From TrEMBL:
Official protein name in the record: Zinc permease
Transmembrane segments: 6-27, 39-58, 64-84, 104-128, 134-153, 160-179, 191-211, 223-242
Organism of origin: Neisseria arctica
Keywords, in A-Z order: Membrane, Transmembrane, Transmembrane helix
Length: 244
């Protein structure tokens, strides 16, 4: 593994983000198709959490108290983000009731930009901890980036605007991944473990409070649950067979 390889893998979610924007430009999925995509993405993120991130945290052998506190801090951070986005969305709805024209979905955009920054730091922390961990996390979060363009499409954000937004998000995740790796490359085991524990809370929030909640807003078929497991199995298979 040469020195350029981590950066190449950091590029993957950035490129996938742009591809997701182009896909959203050409295809507007039905609510049912969107729900299936969300189930698959949730399965992939859960697999990244269960098969790579949590085992890597255990391998670092940090003090349990550090991990517990870090996970709790990550949980409160994500809860604070939820409160912020809810406030922005309610403020926007209030303006619309007063007759103001629709603008961009500010709450969703703020939440998305924070999510992507956290995802980038997760990838960077993964590379700082272990090259294989960084590669696996980059591949797993690329699925989220592919879905992102389809998730952001709305009456107020469509066409080439969605491509531009996903391009900016691609640059953002690349920048934060590089920054995270740069800041943590010489960090102690305790610091890296703390960051990874915070990251675990962020990924858990992404799955349970965003992807699956949104996926359940539409009428579902029973087999959608199998799509969740398919996402988990696909990621786990790639980890076991494709990355050595």
């Amino acid at each position: 593994m040469n020195a350029v390889s981590p950066f190449v893998f950091m590029l993957i979610p950035a490129v996938i983000s742009v591809i997701g924007g182009v896909v959203a430009l050409l295809w507007n999925p039905s609510p049912q198709a969107r729900s299936m995509i969300q189930h698959f993405a949730a399965g992939v993120i859960l697999a990244a959490l269960a098969t790579e991130l949590l085992p890597e945290i255990a391998r670092e052998h940090a003090k349990p108290s550090i991990l517990i506190i870090s996970f709790a801090l990550g949980s409160f951070f994500m809860f604070g983000m939820k409160l912020l986005t809810d406030y922005l969305e309610k403020k926007e709805l209030s303006k619309q009731r007063e007759g103001e024209p629709k603008g961009l979905a500010l709450g969703m955009l703020v939440a998305t930009f924070i999510d992507i920054a956290v995802d980038g730091l997760i990838i960077g922390a993964g590379f700082a901890s272990n090259t294989e961990t960084g590669m696996i996390l980059a591949l797993g979060l690329s699925v989220e980036m592919l879905f992102l363009g389809l998730a952001l499409v709305s009456d107020r954000l469509k066409g080439w605007k969605i491509v531009a937004v996903t391009a900016v998000l691609g640059i953002e995740i690349l920048a934060f991944a590089y920054l995270g790796n740069l800041l943590l490359s010489n960090a102690s085991t305790m610091v890296i473990s703390a960051v990874l524990a915070c990251s675990a809370a962020a990924l858990l929030y992404l799955v349970t409070e965003e992807l699956l909640i949104e996926a359940h807003e539409t009428e579902e078929k029973n087999y959608y649950t199998l799509v969740l497991f398919a996402g988990f199995l696909a990621f786990w298979s790639i980890q076991m067979l494709g990355v050595k």
